[in-house]
Write a structure and sequence with these properties.
Blueprint lengths: L1 H7 L2 H20 L28 E3 L14 H5 L5 E6 L8 E8 L8 H5 L5 E3 L14 E2 L24
Antiparallel strand pairs: 1-4, 2-3, 3-5
The structure holds iron/sulfur cluster (2 copies).
């Protein structure tokens, strides 16, 4: 009898539909607001996506509190890179005792994001930042250096405005 009643009144099915409806309404009304704990999706690209802290994105030259590039051209990262993606031309700067890169070339299309360069740098002068939008229209834009709008290795590329979450 009990089983017969269960067949007539599909309780489990009703419970499932109720839960689905509840989640649907919560997600629908929380879209782009991120208020609900049950906000199940990232509103990317309207809201910049957050990646895990250990995410390895594009190589970036870091600066100190005075805005100076930290790199002292010791070449440890160049030697550690398995794909020869980094080339450094050392230079000098007035008032600075250590060397400073006159040019820090990074060929992104060759990078395998292994992080060996970052690990080898005892000066904490470089980081693989949180940019994951690395697509470009021209191959030349894959070659990063110290100059140009798209080729500034000391700051995030403008193409990555939706993926870059700020300072590391
Ligand atoms: S992450 Fe790896 S492949 Fe990319 S530049 Fe650094 S050492 Fe080279
Ligand atoms: S290891 Fe660090 S300090 Fe040395 S050249 Fe590379 S980025 Fe510069």
């Amino acid at each position: 009898m009990k089983n017969f009643l269960k067949t007539l009144i599909p309780v489990e099915l009703a419970k499932g539909l109720l839960l689905t409806g509840k989640r649907f309404i919560q997600v629908m009304f929380s879209a782009n607001r991120g208020k609900s704990k049950l906000h199940l999706v990232d509103e990317y690209p309207e809201v910049p996506a957050k990646v895990q802290p250990r995410f390895r994105g594009r190589l970036q030259l870091l600066k100190d509190d005075q805005g100076e590039i930290i790199c002292v051209c010791c070449n440890a990262c160049v030697k550690a890179c398995p794909t020869n993606a980094i080339q450094i031309v050392p230079g000098k700067k007035e008032g600075r005792k250590t060397r400073v890169p006159a040019s820090y070339g990074f060929e992104m299309e060759r990078c395998v994001f292994c992080g060996f360069c970052v690990e080898s740098c005892t000066f904490n002068a470089i980081a693989l930042n949180h940019q994951f939008e690395l697509a470009v229209y021209n191959r030349e834009d894959m070659a990063l250096g110290l100059g140009g709008v798209f080729q500034s290795i000391d700051k995030p590329s403008p193409v990555a405005k939706f993926s870059y979450s700020g300072e590391e």
